[in-house]
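Problem: given the chain below (169 residues), write out its structure.
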Amino acid sequence: MSSNKLKSVLKTRAELPGIILHIIEGEPIGDQNQLLNAIRAQGGDLTQATLSRWLHKLGVVKENGVYRVRQTVALPHVLPAPYRITLAPPNLMLVHTPPGYAVAVAATIDKLCTQEPLPKGLQGILGTVAGDDTVLVVTEERAHGGNLKAALLDFLITGLRPLHNETAA
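Solution.
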């Protein structure tokens, strides 16, 4: 693959986590060769050994012959800090990430917030939209505020799985 094509489709290697998660969550992937081909179709170029390391870092496991993302992912092992969260009342938050990591952060928040019961402190998150280095978090209006911001920031920084697996009472 030419380096120009790689740069135009895949701006940085930092985008690989988001691309890998997107592919795995979007279609059944049975082996690493199939995943490598899907990544290459999106402009990525990496070896099987590198892919294997990324799968481990992202918490991807093979279950019933198909790769899946574990329910919870320890973000600090995948994504570097710092994170910054800006409140945008009445029901929005912006999570600022290092360049290229917003998709992986958004996917993790979305996955986390679809668990039943919801992790303690993260109730009220409706969904996310990701750019390159910013995640827009949409919340219920009544859930917005400092407590939710603090709980989300704590999760992003410490990577608790999730928040000591405590659930809302």
